[in-house]
């Protein structure tokens, strides 16, 4: 029952909030959404990287109502609304979310290594003095300065990964195209071979008939043709024919 009342109260607060939102604010939100870094869904929803799934759902509901095409007159409201929906879908998908967060972790590790190196080099720096005064690394990572650095570093890593993915996809596509071309050439070769065999088989009777005619005509002498006399051999054991030997 308590949860139901809480939900009703939240709905009332949202209605009151949007009643006060001006058209300019709605337009500004559309512009903000469309200018976000395309590969980071957290930016579209204006959420920190450690946001929960409930945070994602609540923030999506709030922002999507703000730029809903039925409420917002901006010509690109529909596009902004779609971008928010896609961002929520990505963050609610476990695999997509894990991928983004793995890049966040990698970005944090790079920034921590950079900060550690900087502290070793410049012991008189402001960063060193903050650490000496007792400001922990955890507190520093909550600062606006670190969060902005982290945001930019995540953009950098996501861009690198996307570029690698596209290059790999391009190579796979080229290889598939090459294999397909080889397959088509192989099919064409076998097709020509079959056609040649069929054509050869189709003329078989004609060739056999021509050969028979040739053999028959070769055995018969033409009419009126005189054949030379066969020469006899002197040696009856020899199988060949030789010219007669003149005797003295």
Automatic annotation (TrEMBL):
Record-linked CDD domains: DnaJ
Domain J intervals: 40-96
UniProt xrefs under InterPro entries: DnaJ_domain, J_dom_sf
Region of interest: Disordered: 170-248
Lineage: superkingdom: Eukaryota
Ranges of compositional bias, category Basic and acidic residues: 172-207, 223-237
PANTHER family per record: J DOMAIN-CONTAINING PROTEIN SPF31 (PTHR46620:SF1)
Protein name per Swiss-Prot or TrEMBL: J domain-containing protein
Organism, scientific name: Gossypium stocksii
């Amino acid at each position: 029952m308590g949860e139901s009342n809480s939900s009703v109260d939240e709905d009332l607060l949202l209605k009151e909030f949007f009643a006060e939102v001006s058209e300019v604010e709605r337009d500004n939100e559309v512009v903000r959404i469309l200018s976000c870094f395309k590969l980071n869904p957290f930016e579209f929803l204006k959420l920190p990287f450690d946001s929960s799934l409930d945070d994602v759902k609540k923030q999506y509901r709030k922002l999507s109502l703000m730029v809903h095409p039925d409420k917002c007159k901006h010509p690109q409201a529909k596009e902004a609304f779609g971008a928010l929906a896609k961002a929520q879908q990505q963050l609610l998908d476990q695999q997509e979310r894990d991928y983004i967060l793995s890049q966040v972790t990698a970005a944090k590790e790079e920034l921590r290594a950079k900060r550690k190196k900087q502290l070793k080099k410049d012991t008189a720096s402001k960063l060193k003095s903050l650490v000496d005064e007792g400001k922990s690394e955890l507190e520093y990572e909550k600062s606006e300065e670190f969060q902005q650095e982290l945001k930019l570093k995540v953009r950098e890593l996501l861009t690198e990964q996307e570029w690698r993915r596209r290059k790999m996809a391009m190579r796979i596509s080229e290889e598939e195209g090459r294999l397909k071309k080889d397959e088509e050439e192989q099919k064409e070769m076998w097709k020509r071979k079959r056609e040649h065999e069929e054509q050869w088989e189709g003329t078989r009777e004609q060739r056999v008939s021509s050969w028979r005619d040739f053999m028959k005509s070769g055995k018969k002498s033409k009419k009126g043709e005189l054949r030379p006399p066969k020469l006899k051999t002197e040696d009856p054991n020899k199988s060949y024919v030789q010219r007669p030997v003149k005797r003295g």
